[in-house]
Design goal:
There is one protein chain. The protein is mainly alpha-helical. Helices cover 73% and strands 0% of the residues. It is built from 20 helices and no strands. α7 runs antiparallel to α17. It is globular and about 55 Å long.
């Protein structure tokens, strides 16, 4: 089988990535690798249910907590803000405690937040518990590529695809199953939200075992590389291109999740059909999230994939503008393909640095900066829709976002690393 990447295979599996001349690290026990795979999958399954389980029950939550419509609107904008703010803390935490320990703490924070949130008595406490869960998601978001780089340096595409597929599955499953589970458990929205803490608690277990195994790569700090702290990502075109690509695709994903059902309903389709169309869009990410990273790591330049995904999105938004009802199923499929820019972005983060230290800093920079960029998008679309009374201008704007996204993807997909760019500026 051909190597998946050229950059990762330079690193022997028994040395600490990013530390030239470092003495060989202890080879982990045979049980460690399967446990890492289990931990990655369980962690990925928990990176979105805190968000997508809330949407179907938001009206019940508003009524139960006497929450205003304005506060409910703010609540839908909290996730990207928390991802940006808390994501910036991940490199420092990983340097001090090791990436595995931070992911373990992140899973524990998600568990606690999801367990506390449904049983709060007021809006401030509900928001605080949600922020606790989102904090755990934020640091885990950033460190997933780091764990992959450290344990599987020659299988970045395969492992990124695996946890991206699990993330997409968790996203879709929480959106689809929350209401049926709530009804099956007695109809209380509090129980329907709280049940997701069980899945999060399961994810704590493998990471606890990995942290206790001090010989494992997840337990070691990624900051041992000489000069790692000196990398100036602010001056790196690749880092900024990745941040822009990540931010625009994240904005598009939140717009799709929040507004696409309304687009279809305004086109004359039923609420049930609109929900099914959104489910189709989200489910498309499950198989493609596994395929695209594997394909990306076999190419020297990932720009053509970024362009192909962007063109699928442009076709979908054009179709929604011209024939939203008659071609609804095709547009939903194309939007699902376009939304697979997310696993592509994660894969490129893992490929654009040679060391674990570089990956953790690049991941934090690209994701946190990107999520900050993504915040205005869904709000802008909502304002335009409310003030124009239709979807013409909003759909043009949504399609327009894809042009700079493709440009950023072409720049980010070039065969170079942030270390190369840093040396060119020294």
């Amino acid at each position: 089988m051909p190597d998946e990447t050229r950059t990762e295979t330079r690193l022997p599996a028994t040395t600490t990535p990013g530390v030239p001349g470092d003495s060989p690290a202890p080879r982990p026990a045979a049980w460690v690798t399967p446990l890492v795979v289990t931990g990655l999958v369980l962690a990925a399954l928990n990176l979105r249910p805190a968000i997508t389980s809330l949407g179907p029950l938001l009206e019940d939550v508003r009524g139960g907590l006497h929450m205003s419509g304005t506060v409910a609107g703010v609540l839908t904008s909290v996730p990207p803000f928390c991802f940006a703010v808390f994501g910036f803390t991940a490199p420092r935490l990983a340097r001090r405690f090791g990436p595995g320990a931070v992911v373990c703490a992140g899973m524990a924070a998600i568990t606690a937040g999801l367990l506390i949130r449904p049983f709060t008595s007021g809006t401030p406490a509900f928001l605080a518990a949600s922020a606790l869960a989102l904090m755990g998601i934020a640091v885990s978001n950033v460190l997933m590529p780091v764990i992959v780089k450290r344990y599987f340096p020659d299988r970045v595409g395969t492992m990124t695809g695996l946890y991206s597929m699990a993330l997409a599955l968790g996203t879709a499953f929480a959106a689809a199953a929350t209401v049926p589970m709530t009804e099956a458990l007695g109809g209380s929205w509090r129980v329907g939200l709280g049940v997701w803490a069980v899945l999060a608690a399961l994810a704590v277990l493998p990471w606890t075992a990995l942290v206790r195994d001090r010989s494992g790569a997840a337990a070691r700090s990624p900051a041992g590389a000489p000069g790692a702290r000196g990398l100036s990502l602010v001056r790196s075109r690749t880092a900024w291109a990745l941040a822009c690509y990540f931010g625009i695709q994240a904005s598009g994903a939140y717009i799709t999740m929040g507004w696409m059902p309304q687009v279809f309903r305004d086109a004359g389709l039923s609420a049930g059909t609109a929900g099914l169309l959104l489910a189709v869009t989200m489910v498309m990410g499950v198989p493609l999230a596994f395929v695209i990273p594997r394909l990306a790591t076999r190419l020297k330049n990932q720009g053509p994939i970024a362009v192909a995904l962007g063109l699928c999105g442009l076709t979908a938004f054009t179709g929604l503008l011209l024939a939203p009802a008659s071609g609804a199923w095709l547009w939903a499929v194309l939007l699902g393909i376009s939304n697979c820019s997310f696993p592509l972005a994660l894969t490129m983060i893992g490929m654009r640095s040679r060391s674990g230290a570089g990956v953790v800093r690049l991941s934090a920079f690209a994701q946190s900066t990107g999520y900050l960029m993504s915040i205005p998008g869904p709000l802008l679309i909502g304002v335009l829709y409310q003030n124009t009374g239709g979807w013409g201008l909003p759909l043009l704007i949504m399609g327009g976002f894809l042009v700079p996204q493709m440009v950023a993807g072409v720049i980010a997909g070039r065969d170079r690393t942030i270390e190369d760019e840093t040396r060119m500026r020294d």
